[in-house]
């Protein structure tokens, strides 16, 4: 499995027992959706390795207490502490309306209500407090905050997102 075909679910935070159980921090608003997984991919030495789940249960809201198959000791668990965990993109629940996953809008055309076509989305920068659309327009990168008030409509069928940006924001980049 390739990382680009997966989504980040969380990280193996710490050991839970001397029998090889670990606590996986789930970076999601709905941790209960992942309680009945059969397996997950663990990034180990730069590769996604499938780990099959023998037993799992939610622990203190955001953690999943997991016993992986063939993990029977603290030493086994120590090897994967701090590793990130992933699931295939096909396991993401489908969103409707104007809700979207960041990976899903890459390549979408951006139409601004005032300016018309302002480029294509090349990425989403979520490294800071405010996530930003990264839009490519004639070799220039435009950064637009991902604010609900700016997003008018998401058209999945035509791979277009319609924005209403404030006057001056996009103009800084294209003039």
Describe the structure in your own words.
This protein is 5% helix and 46% strand. By secondary structure, the chain is mostly beta strands. The protein has 2 domains: 89 residues, Beta Barrel (Elongation Factor Tu (Ef-tu), domain 3), CATH 2.40.30; 73 residues, SH3 type barrels. A 6-stranded antiparallel β-barrel has the order 1-2-5-4-3-6. A 6-stranded mixed beta sheet has the order 10-9-8-7-12-11, with no helix packed on it. The chain is elongated, with a radius of gyration of 20 Å. 21% of the residues are buried. The model has no long low-confidence stretch (mean pLDDT 93).
- Quick one: biggest sheet? 6 strands, antiparallel, barrel
Report strand order across the widest sheet: 1-2-5-4-3-6
Compute the number of structural domains: 2
Number of E-state strands: 12
Measure the end-to-end span. 43 Å
Overall average pLDDT? 93
What form results from the Cα inertia axes? Answer: elongated
Give the amount of beta strand, in percent: over 45%
Instruction: Enter the CATH topology name of the largest domain.
Output: Elongation Factor Tu (Ef-tu), domain 3
Order of helix and strand elements from N to C terminus: EEEEEHEEEEEEEH
* pLDDT < 50 runs, ≥5 residues: none
Q: CATH homologous superfamily of the largest domain - what is it?
A: RimM
Residue share in helix: under 10%
The secondary structure category is mainly beta
